[in-house]
Each structure stands twice: as structure tokens, then as C-alpha cells.
Amino acid sequence: MASYPPAQCCTLGTKHRGEPTGKAIKLAGKWDGYLATPTEKEHKEVGIVYIPDVLGIWVNSQMMADRFAANGYRCLVVDVFNGDSLPLNRPPDFDMKKWMTQGSDGNNPHTKEAVDPIVEAAIRLMKEELGVKKLGAVGYCFGAKYVARHFSSGIEVGFMAHPSLLEEEELASITGPLSIAAAEVDYIFPAEKRHKSEQILAKIGLPYQINLYSGVIHGFAVRCDPRKKAERYAREQAFLQALAWFGEHLL
């Protein structure tokens, strides 16, 4: 694997303050989404699909989508968990593997077989209903896997932060530029996995970037504690990393 499966650290973090300004929508009439639309200076016919971590659509991901919209990108956060995302700060004894394979009720798995159709519906909505001609994608933790998997479905440029569950074959299958933001302390995407990912990306020969942020842990790009200077700085720089990457390769 290019990164390990999700663990307790994938739910830990801080809820950020703010009021989301986008709107709730439905994908294919059954899956939830959150759509943030630029009010000015829109990059016409360009959009971003946001594939979240295990916390799904919540205030942190909504406000990040709003920030992409404020920078001109129509941004759709997609509920890849079919209404079964996790709350913040699960206890250490939470059975993450069982939740991944079965869902909270035992009949709502969060495997690639269940998630792929939701991501594909998001891509279709952006391209067929919203008129997006050039599509980027961001994936955080759990969502990073599905950025890699869905270049084949219409994603042209990707960004991921602190990936989990990413297979080497999935990373090797990308067909467009990819940027990765990594944490110095990350048991899901440790140094050996980061270096292996670098080798894979170098072999592909497409534009790539891996930035390592010191003083932060897994999840920092979405769930950091903004009261801590190092975490706040790293979160902001990871967001600017994504913006710069899309500005270079998507526009």
C-alpha cells in the first residue's frame, strides 16, 4: 500500500468556527452533497470535487469548500458515506475496520464498491448538469484514495492531503498532475510510504509535488487546532498549495 488504512487519528481534531455559505444538494436523487459557488471572479467551466475524510460533510469541509469558491472554483463536497459519516473524536476502542466494511448499521459499507458510484455521480453532476469542462479533485485522508481512482472517470488534476487506504496500483494509475500535502508525524502516511509514493510518481513521469509540513500530525489540513501557530500555518499553506496547483495545471 502507498498509505495505511484509516485509524483513530483519522477522526481526531478540532471543529472550526464559521458559518458555511453554500447549499445542500442531492446527487442522482439519493446522495448528499454540499455545493459552494463563487459569487465573483469565477473560473468559468472549471470545478473541484471535494472527497472528504471520514467526517464527511461538516462545518470544516463546508468552509473549506467555501474557500475554494471564494477563489473562483465551483466546489462540490460529496457524502461518500451515504449518510454514515463519523462524528469528531471517536474513542480509541471504535472499530474502524468494521465501520469501513459494514457501516454503522451493518448494511452500509464504505468500501470502494460502495464509494465509487457516489464519486462517479458527483463527477457526472459537475460535468453534465453544472457545465464543468475541466475538473480538479481534492481528497483528504479517506478521500485521497478516490482522487487517485477517479482520474479515469474525468478528474484531470488532483490534490490530496495525508492520504489513507491508498494502494500503490491506484497511485500508479493516475493520468494527470498530482500534489500531496503530508504531515511530519503520520502513522497512516509515514516516511517510508511517502518515499514509496514519490518513487511511483517519479516513474509515471507526470507533474507531481509532495510537500512535508513539520510540527503537525495526520489530519492537519482539515482538523488542525487553529489556536496553535504551527498547525494553523500548515493548514493554510496546504490550502494555498492546492490553489497554486490548480492555478498551474487546471486553469
TrEMBL record:
<feature type="domain" description="Dienelactone hydrolase">
    <location>
        <begin position="32"/>
        <end position="249"/>
    </location>
</feature>
<dbReference type="InterPro" id="IPR002925">
    <property type="entry name" value="Dienelactn_hydro"/>
</dbReference>
<dbReference type="GO" id="GO:0016787">
    <property type="term" value="F:hydrolase activity"/>
</dbReference>
<dbReference type="Pfam" id="PF01738">
    <property type="entry name" value="DLH"/>
</dbReference>
<dbReference type="InterPro" id="IPR029058">
    <property type="entry name" value="AB_hydrolase_fold"/>
</dbReference>
<protein>
    <submittedName>
        <fullName>Related to hydrolase related to dienelactone hydrolase</fullName>
    </submittedName>
</protein>
<keyword id="KW-0378">Hydrolase</keyword>
